[in-house]
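Hey, resending since the last one bounced:
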Amino acid sequence: MKNLLFLGLFLLLFTSCKTENDSLPVVKSRVFTSVAVDTLLQEEISIRAILIDSNTVWYAGSKGQYGSIDLGTDKRFSGHVTKDTLSLEFRSIAKTKESIFILNVGTPALLYRISKDGSRIKKMYQENHPKAFYDSMQFWNDEEGIAIGDPTDDCLSVVITRDGGTTWNKVSCENLPKVREGEAAFAASNTNLVVKGSETWMVSGGTKSRVFYSADKGQKWSVVETPIVQGEAMTGIFTADFYDAKNGFIAGGNYEKLTQNFGNKAITKDGGKTWKLIAEKEGFGYASCVQYVPNSRGEQLVSVGASGLYYSSTAGEKWSKLSGDSSLYTIRFMNDSTAIGAGKDKIVRLRFK
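The structure tokens again:
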């Protein structure tokens, strides 16, 4: 009787210690084996900057062009920025609740705010330094945003807004880690800058391939080395993404050796403090954009670049080629099975199956 009583008490304690989540079934993410593509836009434009705002795709590209596509109604808007005789090329795009922001590469650096109905566009920042070349832009929230670019001095160029994009101020190199000679950033897909909450990561290439980190929305910065290929002008990290504050992925390679598929992918599980090469001599070569699949627990990624479109369901250890299209430069997910891609002369919708 005592043994039975003891067993009953043990079972009661065991079941009472189980959490609510213990009783829930583990949902395994679906593994993709193919992708269906339909074209949303096809015209003469190079697009490396896209974002998804609810059911609308915004883009900015070459020849001063920008615009939007409502995926529900197919309502389209297109605009064009001219500046003297310059042919502007926009490779950075970001949004707040009220506005869209676009930023060109080259000098002068020109940052514009666009109303979401397309009726108003206004220049918010200009930088005339002959070395100005901005690569990427993101917002932490509706008031605070950041854009990064190549060095004009001995640090990466960083401009920050704290008032919703009305004013932008360049951060002094006294408050940023110094770069090495020949170290810069690549404007490949608006993904060499990543924000999660208050945390920020920006990545470099060239003579050094490093990750710069701020825990406090750009107030203080540190920098860590990575094992990504480096040492030449067109080597390094071209793209980065973080699934959450701990799990991240960087990719790139050698733009002059597009099929080289080693030294071009690395993973972190500690928020970017340390990086480990992964999938050496496996999968894609040079990549211009890598993105985590939403709701995949950090296990699924998609990459686009010179080798085509690749997919991993093993956190980047193994990759499968889903498309040979090498003309896509950038990609963003709408949900856990649909993404928008853009590149040379087109925007496409990608449905993963």
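The CA atoms of residues 268 and 274 lie 6 Å apart.

Sorry for the duplicate.
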